[in-house]
Amino acid sequence: MPEVTRKIGLSLGADICWPIAFEEILAQSKLKLPVGKDTVSFHCERTTLEPFDLQAKGKYDVVVDRLTHWFAQQREWIKKGILMDGLYVYNNPWSVQSYEKHSTYCAMLALGMPIPPTAMVPAKNYVPKPDLDFTLKAYARLFDLGAVGQQLGYPLFMKPYDGGGWQGVSKLDDEKQLRDAYERSETWLMHVQKAVAGYDLFVRAVGIGPQVKLMKYDPSQPLHGRYTQERGFCSKDEQQVMEDTCLTINSFFGWDFNSCEALRKDGVFHPIDFANPCPDSQVNSIHYHWPWYVTSNLKWALFCAATKRPMRKTLDFEPYYEIAKKDLPYRDKLKGYARIARQRLAADQFAEFAGKHLAHVDAVAFEWFGSERCKAAIRKKVSNIYPAHEVEEFTEKFWQLVQKWRQEEGKR
After folding, report:
1. β-strand 62-65 against 88-90: which pairing, if any?
2. Which of 37, 94, 118, 306 could make an SS bond with 193 (beta carbons 3.0 to 4.6 A apart)?
3. Band of residue 411 on the pLDDT scale cut at 50, 70, 90
């Protein structure tokens, strides 16, 4: 059988710990997989930022992207690779660039998702531009912010329409707080969204390809305490609802790696934040869940590279909207959306491939997360973000949480 090498590129920003894990687990797995008529091995390297010739042939089969959501040059390099070189990348870069929280709310509302009532309000201030004064004087209308708040109902959240990382988010209990938050919003374009008051569960669902992990989330804690280690916090049916919701969103927008936050109230999950392509993958925040992230990421990259998975260059919304038009209960519609999602994300093919070829990767990963190399990667990340006198404390804390995952997975 001809031997071929598939090349995986890691497009990175300030990522430290997970690329080390990804690279070392791949290297230690020493994979040579029979795929079709070929024997496929894999090479992984980190992509660089440098001039690129539009006519030059790209060298990667798959790029795991953690940079293009904020770095324009890498985004354009990846677009070129998709259009000209048959590159497969996490996530569709045109979609990442175009679909902010605002437009994702609109699309999922059109599909019937129970998103809380939301309004957009004009920016308080504007960056000076030619003709701005004329435009505002001619067309901007005075409005009563208090009436917006009264219509939606308190408590509310004000947040940037395109934000992330809780930046610019305010919880508002009355009109005075709403007006004060608006005065402080500067040039941000803001959403005002009715809070899901009285919710009894906050879930963050992360999808990597067709793989989904649910985590109980506690936003009241510092970053390293928000992702709890609880299991079994959802019923089987609720877990299916959240998996279907996550996969529907990801496949709709062409995102391989994205997270969906939802609040449960009276048995209904209300998605509140789900435009998070390339969510945080660092051990200092996800610790106990970090091995799942790394291993699932690696397995999806291997599947895409080995099978030469074609990149969907355009987004086709119509099959989803056809289901949305039907006179069906929302849960039945969601099942229909999820069937499309699993087909687009090759769920059955991936499950077969992983079962046949990737059990060894799981075994290698399990051992690596108990190694001194793992602890060194954790320390390297911690050293980059914590003061020197806290490095050993938090290195040990996150290391022990990873070991807790190993102990519980070993029992399973």
Report:
1. parallel
2. 118
3. confident
Tell whether omega for the bond before 116 is within 30 degrees of 0, i.e. cis: no
Angle between helices 290-306 and 391-411 (to 10 degrees): 70
99-114+200-277+325-342 maps to which CATH number? 3.30.470.20
According to DSSP, the β-strands at 170-172 and 156-160 are: antiparallel
Measured in whole angstroms, the distance separating CA 11 from the mean position of its chain's CA atoms is 15
- The owner of tokens 């690596």 is 368
CA distance 227 to 204: 9
Give me the helices (H) in 68-214, please.
72-85, 93-98, 101-110, 132-139, 145-152, 175-183
Residue 309 contacts residue 88 (beta carbons within 8 Å): yes
Q: What is the DSSP letter of 336?
A: H
Phi, psi torsion values for 204, nearest 5 degrees = -115, 120
What residue type is 405 in one-letter code?
A: W
Render pLDDT for 109-158 as a digit per residue (tens, 0 to 9): 999 999 999 999 999 999 999 999 999 999 999 999 999 999 999 999 99
Give tens-digit pLDDT for 250-309.
999 999 999 999 999 999 999 999 999 988 899 999 999 999 999 999 999 999 999 999
Distance in angstroms (rounded) separating the CA atoms of residues 403 and 407: 6
The pTM of this model reads 0.96
CATH number belonging to domain 117-194: 3.30.1490.20
Domain spans of the chain, in order of start: 3-98, 99-114+200-277+325-342, 117-194
CATH class, range 3-98: alpha beta
Q: Return the residue matching tokens 């129970």.
A: 114
Q: How many alpha carbons lie under 13 Å from residue 224 in its C-beta half-sphere?
A: 14
CB atoms closer than 10 angstroms to residue 139: 7
Task: Copy the structure tokens of residue 105.
Answer: 């709310």
Q: What is the C-alpha to C-alpha distance for residues 240 and 262, in angstroms, rounded to an integer?
A: 13
Instruction: Quickly tell me which residue has 């508002």 as its tokens.
Output: 172
Cβ proximity of 247 and 113 under 8 Å: no
